[in-house]
Amino acid sequence: MQTTTNELAVKQIDVTDMTYTPRSTSLPSGWFADESATKIVLSTINAKYIHASLGLRYLYANLQELQSHCEIKEFVIQTRAIDIVERILESKPQIVGFGVYIWNIIETTNVVSLLKVIAPDIKIVLGGPEVSYESQGQSIVETADYVLTGPADISFYQLCIDILNDTPPAQKILQSKPVVLDKLSLPYEYYSDEDLTNRLLYVEASRGCPFKCEFCLSSLDTSSNPFELQQFLEEMETLYQRGARNFKFIDRTFNLNIKTTMQIMQFFLDKMSEPLFLHFEVVPDHLPRKLKELLSQFPAGSLQFEVGIQTFNQEVQANINRKQNNPKSKENLLWLRENTNAHIHADLIFGLPGETFETFRESFNELYLCRPHEIQLGILKRLKGSPIIRHTQAFDLRFNPLPPFNILSTDRVDFATMQLVNRFARYWDMIANSGRFKHSIPLMLDGNPFDNFLALANWIFDKTGQTHQINLKRLFEILSQATQSLFSDKHEALLAELEKDHTNSKLKGQFNQLNLYLGQEKSAATTSKLMQRQQQHMS
């Protein structure tokens, strides 16, 4: 029988060997003889220091009697794998659990490989979205001892009991049972004072998502399930009393249940006598009047809304099973910008099945007119397990086989065009989203936002060959020269706006001392780094 694309998608998603059922229920007598011994290390590699892993803290909170024998060790991407291994081995653990995500899969694979060479007796347990689907065949899975797919808040504890009892499961890939939220111990007390002072605190009032957008792993959820509201607010009160002022909600649809949303927002509004920062992901077409009235009361600098638009093209929306009222979404984005102090961060995705360069341009221009503070231009990524794979053959989707598994071409967008938009997105983030050119950008883009910025992006790349590491002083010069070349009629007016942005940037030096005109660049003799190093030794 011929296998359909849908059947292929299901087969590639469903790779777990069994639902995990623990064999042991308690530890053997005498196990706690050495109360100071660390048996378990929970670890992950964060993209930045300011990120504190909520997932590790959930595991720690639910370790019961094992908690006193567990340490959390978090690292950042820039740390060498061998240094991470050294830090982990300092605790002499028997079990190490890693949270694995799309942003850290390469680095975590390197750490696991080293650990298994240096200390092969340590049992390595993997969890997280990057190993929960299509697990078989991944090198990190082959190296590790166990993989817990799905929500491992409880199953990690059960697996640790079995390992320490020397009754481990025979299978490597184990599917966690669904978690009942009111049975979980909440993790918020395990944010340290340093976390509260220096890092974003991730919190969640609900889990799951009722929507089925196929590029997202949340499309596999059956519903959105709330935590008990009063208990959640008590936890937030405790964090606040300890000094927490930055809260990032990871709920996929924060404003789904308006009654709950209102209570949470009112809770924080009542505390606005001190500066607070709250981040929420909101559904753009679901802002009833009473919620709008409440949002308009928040002071400047207190709210950030992440608004997923992804595309305004109805055909593409239908392809990915995304339900969105486009006129209402635009109306609400404009209302938020004009009637609240919220910082609005809106998302678009390029490379979706059925999207063309032209339809993406239209979506960008429509979104630009809604005036969000930032437009985050994402390139479609094939998250393991996401149903987007069902479109692979029909739309000739070709993904990078290496992280971050970004789309390389489709039947509508060739590789060269994909690279073009990649550079557009990078420069947009560097220039428009940075907030450093808020006076200049409207003038440069006036008339045709997408095409004007595309022309700027192409000019900058032709001039520099770089999409990274362009310092701010040089960026002011490049934007002036690019505008002179591309939009000469705007150049003199742009210089006045650029000077305002330069003043706000606090850059040293005078604006009129910059190389603002084509052909003005000064040649300078340069000495290679190698020659400089030799001269230092010889002087």
Task: List the topology elements.
Blueprint: H1 5-13, E1 18-19, E2 40-46, H2 54-61, E3 70-76, H3 81-89, E4 95-99, H4 105-118, E5 123-127, H5 129-132, H6 139-143, E6 146-149, H7 155-164, E7 173-175, H8 193-198, E8 201-203, E9 206-208, E10 224-226, H9 229-241, E11 246-249, H10 258-269, E12 277-282, H11 289-295, E13 303-310, H12 314-319, H13 326-339, E14 343-350, H14 357-368, E15 374-379, E16 398-399, E17 407-409, H15 415-431, H16 440-445, H17 449-464, H18 472-486, H19 491-505, H20 529-538
Parallel strand pairs: 1-7, 2-3, 2-4, 4-5, 5-6, 6-7, 8-11, 11-12, 12-13, 13-14, 14-15
Antiparallel strand pairs: 9-10, 16-17
Helix pairs in contact: 3-4, 10-11, 15-17, 17-18, 18-19
Please give a structural write-up.
The protein is of the alpha/beta class and 539 residues long. It contains 20 helices and 17 strands. The termini are far apart.
Uncertain runs: 1-17
**Number of separate strands:** 17
Average of pLDDT: 92
Strand content: 5-15%
Rg of Cα set: 26 Å
Q: Describe the main β-sheet briefly.
A: 7 strands, parallel
Helix content: 25-40%
Strand order of the largest sheet: 1-7-6-5-4-2-3
Shape: globular
Q: Could you give the distance between the termini?
A: 79 Å
How many separate helices? Answer: 20
Structural class: alpha/beta
Q: Which short descriptors sum up this protein?
A:
globular; 539 residues; alpha/beta; 7-stranded parallel sheet; single chain
